[in-house]
Design goal:
single chain; mainly alpha; about 60% helix; globular; 2 domains
């Protein structure tokens, strides 16, 4: 599959802007916080993720205390976030695999490729989680592709049908205008949550309908 035409990508971006604005999130340079938050976000919604994260910070003095605590205590703390047995073990495994005191500074000093390699070498950390940390914590050029972004992008013809997530991340980096990584990721995600649903997309209400081959075919079949 050839990369999508850049003019078409810009038209999609501009229409998303009209609906969702231009999201902006300055880098906060707290990579470890972002990493734990992203682990907690897996298979749950933002509210439950945030409740679990705040409980973890409330119940333990610092990340070293989380690392050294009995697993049952960590699991209980993050239970509102769902699948807490898996996530509590994953978080503690990550904390045992790194130098907590230097992690943020070390990651900040690395190139995108080196930072990504470090992150995906950690227990349970994949390409999407690594991209979240690099982009939101440090403003580095990487872009998370979650199920919403994958679905919307595939329907729009930006991604190859049934492409693996590694390919989706590479493709996203290829066609996203430099400096607009957060905007494009967040607006595609918002569109997937609000309009381009998995089972019943609201094609009749979609601002991207004229640019979407999937939506056009669905409307023709009605």
């Amino acid at each position: 599959m050839q990369p999508p035409n850049r003019a078409r990508v810009r038209r999609i971006r501009d229409r998303l802007r009209l609906v969702y604005g231009r999201p902006f999130a300055p880098p906060h340079e707290q990579g470890l916080n972002e990493l734990i938050l992203t682990v907690l976000s897996q298979s749950t919604n933002d509210r439950n993720r945030d409740v679990a994260y705040l409980a973890l910070r409330r119940d333990f003095e610092d990340w070293a205390a989380v690392r050294d605590a009995p697993n049952a205590a960590v699991e209980l703390s993050i239970r509102p976030g769902g699948i807490s047995k898996v996530k509590s073990a994953r978080i503690q495994d990550i904390l045992r695999a790194i130098d907590i005191d230097t992690f943020d500074d070390d990651l900040a000093a690395m190139s995108v490729d080196a930072g990504r390699d470090l992150l995906v070498s950690l227990p349970g950390v994949g390409r999407k989680t690594a991209a979240c940390v690099l982009l939101f914590a440090y403003g580095k050029r990487d872009i998370p592709v979650d199920t919403h972004v994958s679905r919307v992008g595939t329907r729009l013809g930006l991604f190859r049908e049934k492409a693996p997530f590694e390919e989706l991340h590479d493709a996203m980096l290829e066609f996203t205008p430099r400096g607009q990584e957060i905007e494009f990721h967040v607006n595609l995600l918002r569109h997937g949550r609000r309009t381009c649903h998995s089972r019943a997309p609201k094609c009749g209400e979609c601002a991207l309908l004229r640019l979407c081959p999937t939506g056009y075919n669905l409307r023709q079949a009605d």
